[in-house]
Amino acid sequence: MHLDSFINGRRVASPASIDVISPIDGHTIVGSVATASAGQVRDALSAARTVGTFWSQIPAADRARQLIDAIEDSAAIPDHSGQLIASEMGKPAQDADGEFQFARRLAAFCAANIEGICADRVIDDDEGTLLRIVEPMGVVAAITPWNAPVILAALKVIPALMTGNTMVLKPSPLAPLAVTAFYSAIAARLPDGVLNIVNGEGETGSALVESSDVDLISFTGGPTAARAIGAAASRTIRPTVMELGGNDAAILLDDAGWGPELAERVVFGAMLTSGQVCMAIKRVYVPRERHDEFVADLVAAAGRVLRIGDPRLEGVTMGPVISADARTRLEALRQRSVDAGGTVTELGSLDESVTPGGHWVRPAIVTGLSDADELVREEQFGPILPILAYDTVDEAIERANGVEHGLASSVWSVDIPRAQTVARRLRAGFTFINCANRAGVSLRAPMGGRGVSGHGREFGDLGLSEYVQSHSINYPATARVGSAMAANRYPGA
Fold first, then answer.
1. How far apart, in whole angstroms, are the C-alpha atoms of residue 50 and residue 29?
2. Rounded distance between C-alpha atoms, residue 183 and residue 170, angstroms
3. What is the C-alpha to C-alpha distance for residues 170 and 6, in angstroms, rounded to an integer?
4. Closest alpha carbon to 447 in 424, 419, 467, 466
5. What is the pLDDT of residues 83-98, one digit of tens each?
6. Going edge to edge, which strands form the sheet with 468-476?
7. Distance between CA 410 and CA 279 in Å, rounded?
8. Which ranges in 189-254 belong to alpha helices (H)?
């Protein structure tokens, strides 16, 4: 499989390309994508700019219908399945299948809310007539990661296009195949230039975000790239939306409803996609008197639900991590945790499909660490989970808040009002109750970070609102001239 860029309604070839190596065995080339040149990026932005006025003037409901139809038609293409995602980035195929269905559900949600978001408002009173217009931002540059390639692109493409923007999308070079194929099919069913897809490494991304033809940059990824994008955006004075991951704490209260079901939910919340999820549980705080019991329950639960192997096979629930670099980093982090005094307990079972050369990392929990240790202090982004004991709820909250990241968190208790009271004190953009990760996501619930976890929101009405701006047209009942500039002529002065 080779995929070209998709610019202004057509596929555009390039002499350079990126090979996508499967993490399952570390050597099979799953496919390749064309590397867009700086000139092709400019062409994509120009196409998006040219069609922007036409697209923005289509009624919101009609834009939504066009996009929904394009997504439905594209999702029905047989090649758009979880098998490709499983091959290129290691997510189990049954989970990856859901990525395409997510795009359909998100489109339906956005369509149901788009007219309210995009509606103008007229205020006519004694002060005069104020018309508040909602307008699209313009041309959006979207840069997306590899760990949920179709989902995380959908969270940018669908809100942006439905609110009247046009877009140039650049997927991650680590897993560009499924996202490029799916969104190119969608783009082909929309007016030329509304959605453009370019691939490449850092040079392509730089050409995109440094352009003055971009009106908004929407990025999901890591802090290093975020800093570079932020610097580029500051030079052109462009707004950004950034989701940068988290070091997400789970606080289990003393009435957490202990037992197998709780343990399985925590395993799912921490280990989905081999722990490579921004909102996965990254730290677990447990009452000291429950610590050993919970560890035993967690090991037993993982034995029931974690089967590590070829993600394309039925029954496998965990595949490899994304790359050799990720595997090496996680192995080194695990060893440093042992050197710091931690005790490692491996989880789950290895399937016979685990092959030499693949980027396999055995899931594990680590006990005996302090909050100062690296595995607790930094986001691990992998299947190595620290379990930490606490003595008081106040202490647990303080420790949960004691990191720079502030994306997601979770509180576990059978007493829901009590859990909500604790949740209010956590420094996070999103807090789950009695669940975590994908199990607790709602299309209506905005999600985004605080601190170094980024700014802006995805999902919900706020996710749509990130892609619009206000324009006030005011016709005052009395125009102030001359001495009207005096402070006492202004209401409230």
1. 37
2. 11
3. 11
4. 466
5. 999 999 999 999 999 9
6. 121-125, 128-136, 468-476
7. 10
8. 202-209, 223-236
Dist. CA 455–CA 435, nearest whole Å: 24
- pTM of the predicted model over 0.85: yes
Q: What are the respective helix, strand and coil percentages of the chain, to the nearest 5?
A: 40, 25, 35
Q: Distance between CA 56 and CA 48 in Å, rounded?
A: 11
Are 193 and 166 in contact by the 8 Å Cβ rule? The answer is yes
Please check whether residue 218 is in contact with residue 140, taking contact to mean a CB–CB distance below 8 angstroms.
Answer: yes
What is the structure's pLDDT at 28? 96
Instruction: Give 479's pLDDT tier (boundaries 50, 70, 90).
Output: confident
Query: Looking at the annotation, which residues are catalytic?
Result: 243, 278
Contact (Cβ atoms closer than 8 angstroms) between residue 139 and residue 53: no
Through-space distance between the first and last CA atoms of the chain, rounded to whole angstroms: 66
Copy the structure tokens of residue 376. 């607790």
Tell me how far apart the alpha carbons of residues 5 and 176 are, in angstroms, rounded to a whole number: 11
Query: Is residue 412 within 8 Å of 257, Cβ to Cβ?
Result: yes
Given a cut of 90, whether residue 364 has pLDDT beyond it is yes
Alpha helices (H) in 119-176, listed in sequence order: 149-162
E strands, 223-354, are: 240-243, 248-252, 281-287, 307-308, 343-346, 349-350
The continuous run of DSSP H or E covering 473 comes out as: strand 468-476
